[in-house]
UniProtKB/TrEMBL annotation:
Keyword Cell cycle attached: no
Key words of the record: Isomerase
Stored SUPFAM superfamilies: Triosephosphate isomerase (TIM) (SSF51351)
GO terms of molecular function: triose-phosphate isomerase activity
Protein's UniProt keywords contain Isomerase: yes
Source species: marine metagenome
A Gene Ontology biological process term: glyceraldehyde-3-phosphate biosynthetic process
Protein name, entry field: Triosephosphate isomerase
GO cellular component terms given for this protein: cytosol
Membrane-traversing stretches: none
Entries under PROSITE patterns matching the protein: TIM_2 (PS51440)
Pfam families: TIM
Length: 251
């Protein structure tokens, strides 16, 4: 992975409380000890933890992100919602949008697009998730689905400077199954070519992989040409497991 950064992005999902900072602190201590360069570690945590964790990490090289946001820029009558402006003011610099778990709960491509535009407007870097189901993969629809998700999700988005595209095959999330070397190489290449064509190669394309990433398979994954980093789910809820992933990337 010969890019400006290797991205190690943790998606904690519905996990953690104030005491869970010990996990991030152990990772922070490790990174400071070995003086790891050219990496960017981001923890996307529940909204309740953003402000608390970002304050503790002010002098750290670890960044905090959110896991979703509302599509509106300003305040409004939306009980239980939080928008990108509020997320930014709480201390987050990143936000995950388009995750398959949110798509299942009703996030359409159009809604995701509006969220992305709002997040960019409020100076958040978007981790834009795309991916096909197992049924779609078996029907050879992967490229068609990814192309549609990119076209609709990034509609009227003029720049990739604030976008990290995360390829997460739905059938790989939490299953322990990852695509073959051939499948992943071909899909990452397709995504890169699609983005280069759409944005006329004006901006560098950052593509990461997510889906059952762990210390055992990370060496296979870093061998895939074109991957800039990883979106890590369950393994990010353990300091040791997350550190082992980083270690195995550099061994």
């Amino acid at each position: 992975m010969s890019y400006k950064y290797k991205y190690f992005i943790a998606n904690w999902k519905m996990f953690g409380d104030f005491s869970s900072f010990r996990i991030i602190n152990s990772i922070n201590n490790y990174v400071n000890k070995i003086k790891l360069k050219k990496n960017r570690i981001i923890f996307c945590v529940p909204t309740t933890l953003i402000s608390h964790f970002s304050n503790k990490l002010k002098k750290s090289k670890i960044f905090i992100g959110a896991q979703n946001c509302h599509y509106l820029d300003d305040y409004g009558p939306h009980t239980g919602s939080i928008n990108s402006k509020m997320i930014k003011s709480a201390g987050a610099n990143y936000v995950i949008l388009g995750h398959s778990e949110n798509r299942i709960e009703g996030d359409t491509d159009n809604l995701i697009n509006n969220k992305i535009k709002s997040a960019i407007k409020n100076n958040l870097v978007v981790i834009f998730c795309i991916g096909e189901t197992l049924k779609q993969r078996k029907q050879n629809l992967t490229n068609k689905i990814l192309s549609l998700q990119i076209d609709k999700g990034l509609k009227l988005v003029k720049s990739l400077k604030k976008i990290i595209v995360s390829y997460e095959p739905v059938w790989s999330i939490g299953t322990g199954i990852i695509p073959t070397h051939k499948e992943l190489t071909e899909t990452i290449s397709f995504i890169r070519n699609k983005l280069n064509k759409k944005f006329k190669k004006k901006h560098s394309v950052k593509i990461i992989y997510g889906g059952s990433v762990n210390a055992k398979n990370i060496r296979k994954l870093i061998a895939i040409q074109g991957i800039s980093g990883f979106l890590i789910g369950g393994a990010s809820q353990s300091g040791k497991k997350f550190i082992d992933i980083i270690k195995n990337c550099y061994m």
